[in-house]
Amino acid sequence: MSRIAIVGAGPIGGAIAHALAERERVREVRLIDDRASVAAGKALDIRQTGPIDSFDTRLDGSGDALGASGASVIVIADRFEGGEWQGDEGLALVRKLVRAGTVAPIVFAGPAQTWLMEKTAAELGVAVDRLVGTAASALPGAVRGLVALELNASAVDVAVAVAGRPPAFVIGWSAATAAGSLVADRVPAHRLLAISDALRKLWPPGPQAIAAATAPIVEALANGSRRQLQATAILDGEWSSRGRAALLTLEITRGRIARCLTPSLSPQERTAV
After folding, report:
1. What is the pLDDT of residues 97-106, one digit of tens each?
2. Which of 73, 66, 63, 55 is nearest to 18 (CA)?
3. pTM to 2 decimal places
4. Across 20-69, where does the E strand assignment appear?
5. Would you tell me which of 14, 138, 154, 260 could form a disulfide with 205, CB atoms 3.0–4.6 Å apart?
6. Reduced to 3 states, what is the DSSP secondary structure of residue 102?
7. 100 Cβ partners below 8 Å, 6+ apart?
């Protein structure tokens, strides 16, 4: 069981802390924010729901960003005042953690952190297999839900990949399935187009959706996992590109991305990506 540090006690950071705590697959969650009293208060509030929701994960709050340097996984989220960690401020924060000697994987949970993730690799020299973005990980679930509505079925039976980078995502309709049959054989083309159009309006996802998608990825980085998870990674030759962040399917082992998998796409879908 591992310790997770979440830098930022805003809506996204708080939601991720709660999601991780109630799943009980990590030992400890620390919320870190410039407003230390807010971070401590949110941690206490989540901890007090433990007896009600039957979890016993340890939570605490801190105002010292360097307190994240010894964590198993570091999540960069949003501040209580000031919004997402991004831009030059976000880069300065990550630089401070790197200089403190952290070797933990870094998860960028905010929808506006694509640039920060790319600069962390390019300017700070952090290995690309230690960098994961999770805001876009909420989108495949949204697509599964919309397809399930079209079929009057369960989203659990739908398998569909989403690829690309914000805000231009592409749905892999050519290989999407529902209960073993191709979605394209069961849903009219104009309805698939409508779902693709709706996806653009679903960006950015809200804090709870981001938290639900982020928690399994953080747990995989902390403990290892046999699941294949969709998340944003820095391209290292995929689609003949390097240094750019895009939503892919990832195999994650403890502490790093083991392998990036490009989803099966038609020629038209690959061109769109």
Report:
1. 999 999 999 9
2. 55
3. 0.96
4. 28-32, 58-62
5. 138
6. coil
7. 66, 69
